Structure formats: structure tokens, C-alpha cells
């Protein structure tokens, strides 16, 4: 009787250990959800304007589940209709101004709306808009007996029957719902949270990539060559290590300036020291192995020995550290944005959202600050669980 041929590779052994950790699997699922949301971005958000920054101050700080009607008034400027790929990456600029209303009355050439008010007013406020202004980006228009001649801002002429223009204007009345309510500027909170996940994941990925590249290069160089090179690199590592991380990030940010890309570099330049120390220790223990001596005897270059024979056997601790550094980078970005020296408005950042709404914690709208705080907490916990799972799964002695 033949036994089944089961070939257990190190990769299969790793996944078998990793799957036994439910928290690590849960962390991967949670990060996967955040990753899908951040990739799809503006394609799935209720507010698809750039940075989800459609401000309607009349509906500021409305509770979750809020619904109301809007009159869409055409902006008097050309707005390009972008492709779905460009919309997914950077959003679709709004071609309309959104006017919240309670009800409306449609006349021959105008539409009269009762402006939105969350509380009943003794004397409601009414506003009138010409139908041509509502539907078209126009310079001027002329009314005839049964038709309206409109000159658009691109100098094109449109002649449309009055009843057809009324139907087009009526179609500009839309209803919108806000699942998580609105923030202090009347922006959709759900959309801001979804786009904010893109910022956090981007900062984590790029800053960790920068730290890994610098850390592996310097750590491998110090550990392999030793001598004065090792002493010089370790002196630099100890100097950077002695400076508190947050202060160092703030200093780098002040030098590079405030902005979206600057925060990536600032966080990445402060997390490489731990990677360098670990890689150096691994290289020191591996470089005296017999197969490394054999590679030297065969005349292989230092570059080939380091990257083909040493680093593949020293990469496991780097993977574990990288997962932990993801969580650290997210916290640093949120902290810097809370202090006002991270990504700048109107870019949605979870830390900046907490900064803008922390005063509401003692009010009925505490969720405005708690929801982005929970998002930060969940993402940091997810990467921490993944890091712990990687540590256990890569420990072959376990």
C-alpha cells in the first residue's frame, strides 16, 4: 500500500502555523476589507468629489441616517467628465452646487425652493432659481413664446421648449442619505472615513518600504564587512535610536515641510534603525556559516553573497518588524495630522478628523471623533495581530 505523497515545504509549514492563529486571520480579513475600500475609493463613496470635500454647511453635524432633498444647480464653469480609472484614483469634480431643501414649487421659468432647516421655522426662507441656471452652465438666456434660447459658457447655443426645460429642472431634485451623518462642515462622514483609510495604508506601506530598503542596506553592509564600516553605521544607528521617535518625525517634517508626500518620507526615515539592527545581527550570525565560506572560495561577489545567500535566510525577523512598523506608521501619521503638521486639509486623515471634532466628545455628536478613532484602533490592532501571527508562524522551533 502506497502512502500519499505529501510534500511539506517551508511555505506550507508557515501557512499551517499561521492559520492556527484566529486573531492573525481576523487581522488579515480586516486589513483586506480596508484595502478593498481604499482601492475602490471614490467609486463606492457617496461623495465622489476630490478628497470627499463636498461641503454643505446647512446640513452640518447631522446624525447618522440623515436624509434630505437637494436641488442641484449647475456651476457656471466647464467640468470635465473623467474616466472611471481617474475617478477611482482622484475623484470626479462636482459640476453642481447642492442646495438642501425642504420642498419646492416649479413655475414657468423658475423653481422656488424652501431652504432646508433641521428645525421648523415660523417664517421659512425661500429662494428662487431660473431653470436655465439650474440645468445649464450658461452666460445668458432669452425667453420666447414657447421656447428658451440659452447661450452656454462655451458659446454654444441651446434652444429648448419650456416644458422640456421644466422636466430637466425637475430631474435636478435628488434625495441623499448619510449613513454616518455629516461632519462640522456638512461633508459626508462615511466618504471621509473610506478615503482616510487610503491615506493610512499609503503612509504605512510607503514608509515601511523606505525603512526596509534603508535598514536592510545599512544593516547588511555593517554586518557583512564589519570593522570601521560597522562602527560608523552603528554609531549612526545609535544616534538616531537615542532620539524619541515622535520628536524626530516632527523635526524631519518641519525640515521637509507639511504635505502628503513629506509625511511618507518623514515616517520612513525614522523607522529604519530597528530594521538595520536586526539585519546586522542576523548577518553577523550567518556570514561565518560553511556555505558562505564556500561561496567566497568559489569567487562569488560580495553583492551576490549578501543578496542571494545571506538575506534570504535573515528575512523572517524583517517581515515581523515590518508588520509592527505598519502599526507604528499609522499611529505616527494620525498623531502628526492631529497636531496639524501631517497631511493638510482638505485631504481626509483620521487624525485630522479627530482634531476637528474632539470638542464634540462632550456633546451629542461624540461619534464624529470616536468613529475615526475606532478606525485607527482597528487598523493598528489588525497589523499587531498579523505581526504576532507572523512571529509565531516563522518560529520553526515552536
Helical/strand content category? alpha+beta
Strand content: 5-15%
Query: CATH top level of the largest domain?
Result: Mainly Alpha
- The tally of beta strands, per DSSP, is 8
**Straight-line distance between termini:** 33 Å
CATH architectural grouping of the largest domain? Orthogonal Bundle
Taking the sheet with the most strands, its summary is:
5 strands, antiparallel
DSSP summary: helix tally? 15
> What oligomeric assembly is this protein in?
single chain
Radius of gyration: 29 Å
CATH superfamily of the largest domain, by name, is MetI-like
Mean pLDDT: 88
Quick tags:
398 residues, alpha+beta, MetI-like fold, five-stranded antiparallel beta sheet, 15 helices, 8 strands
Amino acid at each position: 500500500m502506497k502512502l500519499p505523497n505529501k510534500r511539506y515545504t517551508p511555505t506550507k509549514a508557515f501557512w499551517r502555523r499561521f492559520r492556527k492563529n484566529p486573531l492573525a486571520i481576523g487581522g488579515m480579513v480586516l486589513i483586506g476589507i480596508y484595502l478593498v475600500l481604499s482601492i475602490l475609493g471614490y467609486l463606492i463613496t457617496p461623495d465622489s468629489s476630490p478628497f470627499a470635500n463636498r461641503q454643505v454647511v446647512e446640513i452640518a453635524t447631522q446624525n447618522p441616517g440623515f436624509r434630505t432633498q437637494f436641488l442641484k444647480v449647475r456651476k457656471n464653469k466647464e467640468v470635465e467628465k473623467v474616466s472611471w480609472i481617474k475617478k477611482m484614483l482622484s475623484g470626479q469634480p462636482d459640476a453642481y452646487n447642492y442646495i438642501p431643501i425642504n420642498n419646492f414649487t416649479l413655475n414657468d421659468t423658475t423653481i422656488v425652493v424652501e431652504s432646508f432647516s433641521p428645525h421648523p421655522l415660523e417664517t421659512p426662507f425661500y429662494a428662487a432659481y431660473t431653470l436655465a441656471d439650474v440645468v445649464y452652465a450658461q452666460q445668458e438666456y432669452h425667453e420666447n413664446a414657447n421656447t428658451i434660447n440659452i447661450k452656454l459658457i462655451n458659446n454654444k447655443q441651446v434652444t429648448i421648449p419650456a416644458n422640456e426645460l421644466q422636466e430637466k429642472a425637475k430631474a435636478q431634485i435628488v434625495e441623499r442619505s448619510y449613513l454616518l451623518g455629516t461632519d462640522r462642515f456638512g461633508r459626508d462622514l462615511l466618504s471621509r472615513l473610506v478615503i482616510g483609510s487610503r491615506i493610512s495604508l499609503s503612509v504605512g506601506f510607503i514608509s515601511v518600504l523606505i525603512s526596509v530598503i534603508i535598514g536592510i542596506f545599512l544593516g547588511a553592509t555593517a554586518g557583512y564587512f564589519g570593522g570601521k564600516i560597522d562602527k560608523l553605521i552603528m554609531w549612526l544607528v545609535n544616534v538616531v535610536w537615542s532620539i524619541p521617535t515622535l520628536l524626530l518625525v516632527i523635526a524631519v517634517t518641519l525640515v521637509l515641510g507639511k504635505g502628503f508626500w513629506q509625511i511618507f518620507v518623514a515616517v520612513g526615515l525614522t523607522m529604519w534603525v530597528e530594521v538595520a539592527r536586526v539585519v546586522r545581527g542576523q548577518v553577523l550570525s550567518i556570514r561565518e556559516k560553511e556555505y558562505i565560506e564556500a561561496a567566497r572560495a568559489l569567487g562569488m561577489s560580495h553583492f551576490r553573497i549578501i543578496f542571494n545567500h545571506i538575506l534570504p535566510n535573515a528575512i523572517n525577523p524583517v517581515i515581523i518588524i515590518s508588520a509592527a512598523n505598519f502599526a507604528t506608521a499609522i499611529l505616527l501619521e494620525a498623531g502628526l495630522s492631529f497636531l496639524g503638521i501631517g497631511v493638510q486639509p482638505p485631504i481626509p486623515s483620521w487624525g485630522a478628523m479627530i482634531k476637528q471634532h474632539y470638542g464634540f466628545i462632550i456633546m451629542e455628536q461624540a461619534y464624529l471623533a470616536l468613529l475615526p478613532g475606532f478606525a485607527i484602533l482597528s487598523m493598528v490592532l489588525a497589523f499587531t495581530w498579523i505581526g504576532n501571527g507572523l512571529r509565531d508562524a516563522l518560529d520553526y522551533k515552536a
